Amino acid sequence: MRPNARTAFDRRRFLQTAAGAAGGACVLGLGLGLYARQARALPATALRPPGALTEADFLASCVRCGLCVRDCPFGTLKLATPGDTVASGTPYFEARKVPCEMCDNIPCVKACPTGALDHGLSDISKAQMGLAVLIDQEHCLNFLGLRCDVCYRVCPAIDKAITLETRHNPRSDRHAMLLPTVHSDACTGCGKCEKSCVLPEAAIKVLPRKLAQGAPAAHYRKGWEEREKAGHSLIGEQLKLPVRGRDDAAAPVSSADTAAGQSLPAGWSP
Amino acid sequence: MNKVIAPAVARPLGAEAIADKGWWLAHKWLLLRRGSQFGLLALFLLGPLAGVWIVKGNLASSLTLGALPLTDPLIFAQSLAAGHLPYRSALIGAAIVLAFYLAVGGRLYCSWVCPVNLVTDAAAALRRRLGLKGGRVPPEATRRWLLAVVLVVSALTGTIAWEWVNPVTMLHRALVFGGGLAWGVVAAVFVYDLLVAPRGWCGHLCPVGAFYALLGRTAIVRVSANKRRACDDCMDCFAVCPEPQVIRPALKGEGQTHPLILAPACTSCGRCIDICSKDVFAMTTRFNRSES
């Protein structure tokens, strides 16, 4: 074999091997990318530790070291194992199993070396691990008119995150119903309510905030709030809307109703 | 064919070394290495098993004695690629690990620390015992391409990509925190090395090893074939070496004059030293180019 033929052969073999290596790596990378896109879905019952970044940022920053798990004094946090539906190796907890005890010094957040748990969270009552939702009004004992109140009683932010709202009980027609009502500004998603719900399956559940909450449209204004802020109604005096069938008269206001009713025009019929 | 290549009687690997040096000396570096691997594992396990918290965390990131942070630099790099700037604690930890392996030797991680080495060594040993030959091995460069691809996928998906599947941290986490199906992944690596590709995982695919090999160009700890004149071409070192391509330049003087194994792929495991009945190899530093 002539020398240059030899090098040409070597070059071809080298390129072939390199292309094989690059191609193989790219195929593996494609599989990895597809898997990463799919596997990042988080089941609704899996809650991240306090201070966790949004799920997308969390997966960019959590190195899955488990230091938060080690510093959790109540065994609330655990690392997902392969086969769990949570990204393997990432920390989470399930409220119905072991809820968050909301330590004042938040050791799990302090333990995080990367900032997947935001060290800016210094007040545990500002944590937003999820949001409690009284999801099953058909079976909640308070909605049946009983006084269970357990979720309300165990709430670490009692009367702020969960209040009991009095409503008329139409079934008995003479009793009140005290309805546990969650307020999103105070609920941390610790999960104590879900943990202690007396039903075999909890009627109140902590869900990821994204799942639990709607969002108001940016341009919506609440008239009663705006009026209070401005000291007067923003749209001026209430419009006088016509009453059906009375094209000639403006709508009467409040007590004028009865008076107006007495002076129906001759041609009026219902 | 008249030419006999293999010895007429098959002789087990390292039999001569054991006969000449004794069993202990013929397994010295292997035992030291296992001591390092299990010792590190024990440090991590002392906490969860005995409540003695010297080291917390796992190989991805750990905290020793409540003061020394250590973070895997490759995972750190992936986090950066994914668009997150980790806190100073992780930064310091990654810098310490990076500096250590740059100074001492990148792939020391593979043979002295990594738990998957136990798995692939076991597969290689069983392969030898069963007399399995050949296999379909991907090109050696695949691991370096995969390393680049892993960083690209991290950037594209905004996640620490290799950690979705990394058998290294998966096995370590399984041992320290509990495993689930991680054992399936470990078994897959074992079966791959045993039945599909000899030394396939650590030597051809693992991007973690490829990353630490990148840090191996300044390694102080190196193996030298300083008594290469005594070599009797028994080929035991080639048979036992996880990266056999690194031996020839030093032992046979191909492309270099000194007897040092400077290839970054060499993991400095020392098996060639153990297995050689002529004591050709020795663990030394990269500055020692002497030959005897």
Structure description:
The complex is a heterodimer of chains A (270) and B (292). Among the domains of chain A are: 42-128, 2-Layer Sandwich (Alpha-Beta Plaits); 130-212, Alpha-Beta Plaits, CATH 3.30.70. Helix content of chain A is 31%, strand content 12%. Chain A is built from nine helices and seven strands. Chain A has helices at 3-39, 55-61, 67-71, 107-111, 150-154, 192-196, 209-212, 223-230, 256-262; strands spanning 46-47, 78-79, 91-94, 131-134, 162-169, 175-182, 204-207. In chain A, the strands form three sheets. A three-stranded antiparallel beta sheet of chain A has the order 1-3-2, with no helix packed on it. Chain B has two domains: 15-23 and 220-285, Alpha-Beta Plaits (2-Layer Sandwich), CATH 3.30.70; 54-214, no CATH class. Chain B has helices spanning 15-21, 28-50, 73-81, 88-104, 108-113, 116-130, 142-157, 167-177, 182-196, 200-205, 207-214, 236-240, 247-252, 271-275; strands spanning 55-58, 61-64, 68-71, 221-224, 282-285. A three-stranded antiparallel beta sheet of chain B has the order 1-2-3. In chain B, strand 2 (61-64) and strand 3 form a beta hairpin. Chain B is globular and about 55 Å long. Chain B starts with 14 loop residues before the first helix and ends in a 7-residue tail after the last strand. The chains are: A alpha+beta (270), B mainly alpha (292). At the A-B interface, helix 1, helix 2 and helix 3 of A face strand 1, strand 2, helix 3, helix 4 and helix 7 of B.
List the helices and strands and how they pair.
The complex is a heterodimer of chains A (270) and B (292).
Chain A: H1 3-39, E1 46-47, H2 55-61, H3 67-71, E2 78-79, E3 91-94, H4 107-111, E4 131-134, H5 150-154, E5 162-169, E6 175-182, H6 192-196, E7 204-207, H7 209-212, H8 223-230, H9 256-262
Antiparallel strand pairs in A: 1-3, 2-3, 4-7, 5-6
Chain B: H1 15-21, H2 28-50, E1 55-58, E2 61-64, E3 68-71, H3 73-81, H4 88-104, H5 108-113, H6 116-130, H7 142-157, H8 167-177, H9 182-196, H10 200-205, H11 207-214, E4 221-224, H12 236-240, H13 247-252, H14 271-275, E5 282-285
Antiparallel strand pairs in B: 1-2, 2-3, 4-5
